[in-house]
Amino acid sequence: MKRPNILFILADDLGWRDLQVEGSDFYESPNCDRISQGGMRFSQGYAACQVCSPSRASILTGKYPTRHGITDWIGASSGKEWRKNNRFNKLLPPDYKHNLDINELTFSQVLQSQGYRTFFAGKWHLGDQGSDPENFGFEINKGGWKVGSPIGGYFSPWQNPKLQSGPAGESLPIRLARETSEFIKCNKNQPFLAYLSFYSVHGPIQTSKNRWEKFRQKATAQGIPDRRFIFDRNLPVRQVQDCPIYAGMIEAMDEAIGLVLDVLQKVGVADNTIVCFTSDNGGVSSGDSFASSMLPLRGGKGRQWEGGLRVPYYIQAPGLVEAGSNCDLPVSGIDFYPTLLELADIPIPTKQVIDGESLVSVLRDEDSSSLKNRDLFWHYPHYGNQGGEPSSVIRSRNWKLIHYYEDRRDELYDLSVDQGEQNDLADLYTDKTMQMSQRLNEWLRLTRARLPESDPEYRLEKEKDRLSQLEHEFMPQLESQHAQYLDANWQPNADWWGSLTTID
Known about the structure:
Layout: E1 5-11, H1 30-37, E2 40-42, E3 45-46, H2 52-61, H3 65-68, E4 91-92, H4 107-113, E5 117-122, E6 140-142, H5 172-186, E7 192-197, H6 209-222, E8 229-232, E9 235-238, H7 244-266, E10 273-279, H8 306-309, E11 313-316, E12 325-327, E13 331-332, H9 336-343, H10 360-363, H11 369-373, E14 375-380, E15 391-396, E16 399-404, E17 410-414, H12 430-446, E18 453-454, H13 460-484
Parallel strand pairs: 1-7, 1-10, 2-12, 3-13, 5-6, 5-7
Antiparallel strand pairs: 2-11, 4-18, 8-9, 10-11, 14-15, 15-16, 16-17
Helix pairs in contact: 5-7, 6-7
């Protein structure tokens, strides 16, 4: 039997609520929805971390961030350097690995060793030279290097040393899709792994004038809100999906995905190709571009709540998974590694200790009691630039406990009735809180998690002043800026980031 091909599609910063199939009535994503409807949709799919680099490393290694050591986005400040960000916090975040360790064995390397042709396109953000895609089992690399956002923006020239610039104004997601499609065409007669890792929809938020106008009109027709933001603890959080720039970015990425899916059909390999789609963290509700809302989930990228951790999570496995299947079991990015190897009938190498569990039993509609009963964990001992607080999380069935390092406080939520995490039950269910806290602490100990330390220079008054400025000065500015995006006369610059020179 011929081994299946694998198309793995990874979006950047795309939140759970950013797709039509997940309930958005503003964004348009027919091709992402097509993947969901052609296989199994995991309604409680999670990223391994609320920021990008840790999640990306976890997908490739099958390990929690505490094990591979990348616990923050690569480039974030730690220790005393954190103070230079004009932040006045109680804690100093610990250091973390700034590259994917060369001793890690990725699933791409395993597939390559078993005769798979391997290809990577798009965002890498897992280290500098020596930690490139080529060092981890990818024969071809189109666009993957150390940075986490497109330096030259979403329209050519890219300023990317790993991706030759195309015609002036060429769309980046479309170009990545074309590169992926060409690889598939050239390797249709042998097993392949095509890993399409979009920079979209990470900031800077940029779209073409045509797409902006389309979604500006749509947002206006749906009704302009009185306000878009609330202040939640330490940053404004977007509550409305009506940013036409961001909507255009989702549409461009979705069309790019459609190009690749169509090629699978055209070259006759769709029936033997596993297609996975997910994102590296929740949507950008705070920080970065403040572009989207994850409601009814709380928060977004960088935060410890569901809006920061929950992501789209779809798997197509022709001949195995019935189209339109749904699964409500909590699953994580760490589960792709064992799942894909089992689907390819390749054993997990003994040298690679993984934390993920194969989802094949679920895909086959077989007994999945081990998945039902397992705990999932997250550890983010840092301050995110999207409002994240140093914390660790355990999810056990429907229960979720968040431990905060600033004040050693626990929050407890029953997600079966409170997915928006508004009703903290820690004081009501003290036994449950204690039991989950003990299991969380044991996991932190076993995985040798690094913890933040107190900052002796912390001053409460400075922190209060900063928070007051964010709420009373910065948030009104945000409201004004995002209202302007819907003004018929608005334009970002003279040439719309160069996008007027070509059609994307």
